[in-house]
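mind reviewing both lines:
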Amino acid sequence: MLVIDTPEGIEHYRMAALISSLRFEVSTGMKMTRFSLVKVAQEYGCPKNTKKGALAWMEDFYEATYGWAYGSES
């Protein structure tokens, strides 16, 4: 379990929030924010230009970074 008050914990929380927001936007079609979440994903190096593509890439990136699939840590 990561502690949120460390730099690693803050980065973990940011990545988890991005994945959750992308999942929401992909599944409902509604916008979560005023800005593009794909552009935020591209800050991590995501080469995709669609929400579905960015979501799939971020989930793979999360698993590669932390060693477990997003949502399975709880």
User: Anything to note?
Assistant: The CA atoms of residues 35 and 48 lie 16 Å apart.
